[in-house]
Amino acid sequence: MINLLLLPAFTLILIVFIIPIIRYGWISLHSFSLATNLSLIPNQFANWDRLLNDSRFWVDIYQTTRFAFVSVFLEIILAMIIALTLNKHFNNRGIIRTISLLPWALPTTIMALGWRWIFNAPYGPIEQLIRILGLAELNILSNPNFTWIATVIADVWKTTPFIAIILLAGLQTIPKDLYEAFKLEGGTYFDSFKEITLPLLKPYISLSIIFRLAQAFGVFDLIQVITSGGPAGSTESIALYAYLNAMRFLDFGYSSTIMVASFILLILLILVINLSIYSGKKILSTIKL
Amino acid sequence: MKIIKIILSFLFLSSFVELDSKLKQNRTKKEAVEVNILMPAPFEESTRNLIKKFNNKNDKKIFVRVIRGPMETETVSDLAISNLILNSNQYDAILVDVTWLPKYATAGWLYPLDSLIDKKKWDSLMLGAKKGNSYNKAIYRWPFVADIGLLYWRTDLIKSPPKTPDELIKISKKLQSTNKVKYGYVWQGRQYEGLSCVFLEIIRGFGGNWIDNENNVLLNTTESLEASTWLTSLIKNGISPESVTNFGENESLQIFKSGDSAFMRNWPYAWAELQKDDSKVKGNVAITTMVAKKGITPTATLGSWGFSIIKTSANKEETFKVIEYLTKRTSQIELFKKYGYTPIDRSIYSNKILNKQFPILKFIKSGLEIAYPRPETHVYAQISNVLQRNLSSIITMQKSPKEGMYDAQSDTLNILDSVGGF
Lengths: 289, 422
Known about the structure:
Largest interface: A-B, 26 and 40 residues
Radius of gyration of chain A: 23 Å
Strand order of the largest sheet of chain B: 2-1-3-12-6
CATH topology of the domain at 59-111 and 142-288 in chain A: MetI-like fold
Distance between the termini of chain B: 68 Å
Helix content of chain A: over 70%
Number of strands of chain B: 13
Order of helices and strands of chain A: HEEHHHHHHHHHHHH
CATH architecture of the domain at 59-111 and 142-288 in chain A: Orthogonal Bundle
Number of strands of chain A: 2
CATH architecture of the largest domain in chain B: 3-Layer(aba) Sandwich
CATH class of the domain at 59-111 and 142-288 in chain A: Mainly Alpha
Radius of gyration of chain B: 24 Å
Shape of chain B: globular
Largest sheet of chain B: 5 strands, mixed
Strand content of chain B: 5-15%
CATH class of the largest domain in chain B: Alpha Beta
Distance between the termini of chain A: 35 Å
CATH superfamily of the domain at 59-111 and 142-288 in chain A: MetI-like
Oligomer: heterodimer
Largest sheet of chain A: 2 strands, antiparallel
């Protein structure tokens, strides 16, 4: 009976996830481009061979991973601060909570366009501020060594509220009497955060990390709008490269190979993160006891 | 019982859907042939009036429906490609950018227009407008607007525009040193298609080419090295702002419009923007062709739009009638007056009244005469992407011009080799 109840969910996953990824895998073993008149012609592992020797792919993997890890790291820290603040009792808390969610509710393309103008040189507000302070021009979107930081800032601004909401939900599950007992024993606020909040929030933190890493690894619209992958290809992400190959170059064979390869790498990454998080599970259970 | 009710109401509703679609079909069959055209959003807006007139006038035999695409050029192509790949037969025609044509034609999506075209009408087109419509000896596109790269300059600062790259630098330095302007020259340096357009004009201005008529790739030559070194020197010498490496058309326009730059490279659309009330340079702007070394004819990159009929369309003749209407002489004049769209009919440029009313026509004509298309190959997107990446590396000082141009040459050759040439 239980199996039967799972059927609708399983069918959905099969249609929107499993079948497409299998099809991608199948296409990655074929030439499928303008050169083949857009028909599938088996080419064994030629696409995979090309991928392994494609320095652009590996540079993009590095750039995407850098973007994902740095953004998610900053987001977790900021979201924690926000969640702890929003969990306190203060006037108009409901309104403040809603407002703090706004960046996440905005469509990525629109907010990315906004950030492109914020970072604009010489007229953007950041450059204006720097001029008032008497510093040299920043030109963050024109310097291949720093432009990726601009994309991280935009991403952090947009998605921190998402993590904050997950963490806030987690904070609300922690019983108040735990803190009271801790206080009676003479523990400080910082100690209670370390001994109670953090361990009990761990499942929520790990959930956020996995959610966000998977999302950040597939970043596309934000980069496309702010930099189009430039300057000098310094912000190109894997998804952008796969998109270029499919939609601009009409090379679906190679594009699928990139997608499948990044899918495999992402699965490996999440496995490693899961293992490292749940290795600390024992500590968590002792605390709960 | 409940289940039966649900099934019954479902059947009842679905019969309506069927009826509605049948009614629609009958209506179209009896009354008018429906022609569906996909256009980027700005063109959908500018042609709205013409379409309305057409739908009211033509005895209701043809009904045109314009599908409003996205604003951004390449996103429109993404939408078109997604439809064409799935063979969804949604469009009869698409407004096609000059760089998409070889790709679409190779994919077999476009219908050759040779049999539908009246030779007299073809001959009445400006030479520049005739370019970029054919591939493998067949015409696949009827031109709608011809776009060309132009050099905008300030008449309140100088009496005559620079003709050579050296002159541009010299004049800029002089104006900057006397604090008349903050920057000398703004252009499109962002890693995107605009950068390829800028470079084509400069490399040809230095006597070289991107890919010549015999299909030789010429990116690793003295001329290309000179051209890329010149672009870099603009940034190094402060003639162009450092941020130019992330400038698209709008960013360049913003600076020039604020009166902060003496020169700007842009498309004809900028003219109308510069004449608006919020423009600080209103009335003080003129246009000319891009700079070129002494003795070398300057180049204007061709960036035109035109209508292509989709191969699977069931109404090709009717579609072509609509295209003829949208591109006829009076439509061109209307669109030029209202939106500054560059006309394609030769006779418009010799019209005395129009020339008097719009002195810009004369300059657009000289630009159209030297218009040059980007390489016509189905792998254009790939080779342009390679060029953009390497040029971006050069102007952001990540690679030396020599290194960058060498890489651009070898990467382009690799792409061409992998598909067996042009």
